[in-house]
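User: Can you recover a sequence for this backbone? Please restate the input before giving your answer.

Assistant: Of course. Working from this structure:
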């Protein structure tokens, strides 16, 4: 099975942004066992618009770098090879705004990591790299905020998830639904694990709040886990 792990750099945030760099790294498995992690491949693409200085400050890609770059379509054609079975990205919802992958399934390593390693202090791909003790060649993994190195790091996070026992079906299912958040990021309970929140607060989030889908899903999940535990006792 071929997993194409990809990352992109852009001129800013959607819906007004365009791609300026595409990178990917292939992971091959056979019967669920790792076969190979390829070298990362990156390609600058011309967004046909000026690069805002705030975007340059993140990835350091300038208008001069993009002057002779090929069009975005050429980069997406290279990405969308027919041999790919699954597309993978860290925070895949962002990449999917620029490339849907047709009918092929997706894995979001951000959502997967929140499920498998909720204790990680942050679920960025770079924090996960060090939390998991992933040893990488910095010639391939650096610098951050460039498409090919970030795809390379994310590929190794995918491999760590596979080695942890997460199934392909589970990872695809987790990706398709809301994210299970590890800790509260707002209010008086900021920084608290969701599993430690009072039940009445979880119920308020689910039934009366106007929180986002990820927050409501997480609250509902922990209420259900408590219901199951109570029924077993």
């Amino acid at each position: 099975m071929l997993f194409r792990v990809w990352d992109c750099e852009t001129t800013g945030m959607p819906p007004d942004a365009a791609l300026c760099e595409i990178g990917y790294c292939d992971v091959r498995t056979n019967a669920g066992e790792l076969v190979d992690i390829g070298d990362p491949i990156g390609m600058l693409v011309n967004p046909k618009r000026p690069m805002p200085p705030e975007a340059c400050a993140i990835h350091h890609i300038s208008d001069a770098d993009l002057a002779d770059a090929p069009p975005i379509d050429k980069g997406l054609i290279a990405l969308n090879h027919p041999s790919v079975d699954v597309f993978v990205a860290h925070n895949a919802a962002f990449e999917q705004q620029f490339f849907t992958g047709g009918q092929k399934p997706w894995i979001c390593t951000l959502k997967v990591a929140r499920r498998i390693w909720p204790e990680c202090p942050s679920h960025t791909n770079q924090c996960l790299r060090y939390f998991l003790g992933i040893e990488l060649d910095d010639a391939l993994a650096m610098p951050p905020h460039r498409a090919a190195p970030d795809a390379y790091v994310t590929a190794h996070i995918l491999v760590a998830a596979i080695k942890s026992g997460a199934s392909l079906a589970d990872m695809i299912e987790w990706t398709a639904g809301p994210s299970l958040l590890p800790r509260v990021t707002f209010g008086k309970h900021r920084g608290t694990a969701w599993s430690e929140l009072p039940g009445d607060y979880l119920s308020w989030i689910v039934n009366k709040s106007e929180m986002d889908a990820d927050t409501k899903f997480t609250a509902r999940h922990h209420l259900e886990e408590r219901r199951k535990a109570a029924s077993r006792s």
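That completes the design. The first helix runs from residue 53 to 59.
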